Amino acid sequence: MPSLESRVSALGPWFHNLRLGADATIQTAPDHPLGDFPANFWQFFKHCVPDDLSGQSVLDIGCNGGFYSFELKRRGAARVLGVDHDPVYLNQARFAREQLQLDVEFMQGDVYDIDRVVGGQRFDTVLFLGVLYHLRHPLYALEKVASLVGQRLVFQSMERGSWDVAEFAADYPFSERDVFFDERFPRMYYVEHAYAGDGTNWWIPNPACSQALLRSVGLRIVDHPCHEVYVCEPRAATS
Fold first, then answer.
1. Rounded to an integer, what distance in angstroms lies between the CA atom of residue 189 and that of residue 142?
2. CB under 8 Å to 62, separation ≥6 — which residues?
3. Which fold has domain 40-238?
4. Residue 144 bridge partners (DSSP)
5. H or E element at residue 225
6. 53 touches 72 (CB < 8 A)
7. Within its chain, how far is the Cα of 78 from the centroid?
8. Which tens digit of pLDDT belongs to each residue from 70-105?
9. CA 132 – CA 142 distance, rounded (Å)
10. pLDDT tens digits for range 11-58
11. Exposed, middle or buried by CB within 10 Å (0-12, 13-18, 19+), for 85?
12. 146 and 219 in contact (C-beta within 8 Å)?
């Protein structure tokens, strides 16, 4: 039988660096350009999800190799469903599931059709990490995602532009132009060809735009633990 190392290599390249094997020493992406990713990134916002998820459901949209799905299953979630459109990532996630012996479901699906993919079910915790900027129609997708949030959404997007966020009027006259030159105004940068060598980086928001998008789909931002990550709850939950 092929070694675990060779099986991991055959499924590569991996974007999630997972630790597999009886002693957890086999890494799937040890030379990741972002370091021990996403474990290192998870440290900045893992406290935003309860340590005990017993009896709760989790939906991980854009699950990739399954790192976050596995982390939340380890917290006792009753059901964890990871969805990705890429069969390569799903093969990696299913392989890792067998090695880690964690009861996580993985399903192929598209975010634009995510409500149908999950049968319209709401999930207590929804993860939507590293997906928005890869979408040609980001607001449409975010509306779909928001409709499935039961208690909390953990959202992350690449962001560029000014880190500053300011208050703006709810409306402006047609003659107003200067506000659009304010770097703090919500804006998305459209990438016509590629960014960082990736032709699927389509729309990159500034922080003000990320926050505005989340509000516009009926969510309230309750935490902003680090750059690019926002924890939200349905606005109706506070009324």
1. 17
2. 83, 84, 111, 128, 129, 130, 131
3. Rossmann fold (3.40.50)
4. none
5. strand 219-226
6. yes
7. 20
8. 999 999 999 999 999 999 999 999 999 999 999 999
9. 8
10. 999 999 999 999 999 999 999 999 999 999 999 999 999 999 999 999
11. middle
12. yes
